[in-house]
Amino acid sequence: MQHKQRFTNVTLVTPYGEEDKDLLIDGDKIVDILNPNENISDDWKIIDGQNNFIFPGMIDVLQHGFLNYLYGHAEENCTVDNSKILPSVGVTGFLPSTPCLPPEKTKTLLNALSNDIDKAKEGARVLGIHSEGPCFALPGAHDPKNLRNPSVSLAEELLDACQGKLKALTLAPEMNGSEEFIKRLKKENISIHLGHSGANPIDVPKFADWGVDAVTHMYDALPTYPPDDTGVHVLSLTDALIAETRIALGVICDGIHVHPQLVELLSHLPTDRVFLETDSVKGAGSPVPVKFEFFPGRWCTVEKGKASTYNGLLAGSSLTSIEALQNYYKFSKKTLSQVAIAASLVPARVIGLENIMGSIEKNKLADFILLQKDNLEISETYIAGKSVYKSE
Of the candidates 221, 247, 223, which has an alpha carbon nearest to the alpha carbon of residue 235? Predict the structure, then answer.
């Protein structure tokens, strides 16, 4: 394997803007960024980037499934197989996510998922587990029978079952016992996301004090309030979340879950406030419709760009990360550099990995994608300095 690689004829998409410079990779790390005319030793392999963008590999922190697998079912090789396929849609790191699991099966399923992650050695990095639930006030498409109250003992149960791999957890923090539950998880540096919540907006700063640092699928499964008959606009939960600067807002950017104009509104916040997540389920990425059982008795269909139950209730998404990138660029009208921050750097920051991944910067892992300038389609994906996907 060639350890020293110099990518030339490229435009680097960095947190500071787009730069027509060369990227130097030694082994699995970015070691330098140079002007194209700068000379170095002749032991570097020159790679022609064919006038593509070099964009940081995308990190999806909420992904319930893809193609043939739903991670909540913890089927053998679910992360092994998907980690090999996800680079084709621009993903270089992800958190397989689980829904509200049956209490009697939680340990078995999370153990199995954790063991499968240990076997995923190729392709996209499996960065840990995101437990979406089970402490919800508003179940949405999740099984209401599996809802549980937060407690320190539940925190210990989840930590033990995930075998050290729990990276993020979504809950409704207004539930009794949440403060102690959150603080126990924060001792293990778990990212705590507010979601499926009907909390009093006034309490949002208190939740941030406890350790809530992100929101799962902003605007979805969160109540909003219209103006009352007197013309007074009351403070909604989503308003309060926007106002709380310590909390990053995850958004499903498919144009279905959240109206494009709301996405544009969020994009005007400071760049460290918004991140992209797919919430994809089994069947995402499939060219044909897919039907699957989310939990016993609840069948879902993935087709025509969305995932839904028989009565039209959204049940995750069919969104891929490259589609999210393209949509955010279109909806937000922001620069590609700002899009990269939302797609890669903020997700890395949310799960505490921004020092080693999430942007095209010196001393970070060489995880990136080559994007065609005319259509933002993927030409090639690199992980740890190695090409793992190339379009035909």
Answer: 223
